[in-house]
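Before we proceed, please read the two lines closing this message. Tell me what the token row says about the fold.
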Amino acid sequence: MIIDLLSDICLLVGGILTLTGAVGLLRFPDFFTRLHAASVTETLAAMLLIIGIMLDTGWTLDSAKLMLLIFIMIIANPTITHALCRAAANGGTTPEMETCNPLSNATETALESSQSSEEKTETEISGKESK
């Protein structure tokens, strides 16, 4: 009874995460963000789905095979995602860097003002040294 409930919860959460990854693939603007959405949800969602199936089938040879599959996925998914990103970057694909974050504009303004004050300080120091 409890194992069936845990199995159902794992399958439900895995399905929801799969749907969020699909939405991320459709909504994100460029290759790198889409790949990030797919890889993060793929790793966790697939593991939850497989764990749900393992709990549903009980401890059999099939469960051992599914555990081996989870182990392979934990190693292979991040490695494959990294290889795809490197291949895209080497192929000339660049990430989209424009943001609509108001905090990034404030940060840029603060950096510019600190750089201009440093330049003023340097010119004041060099002016004093030349006198």
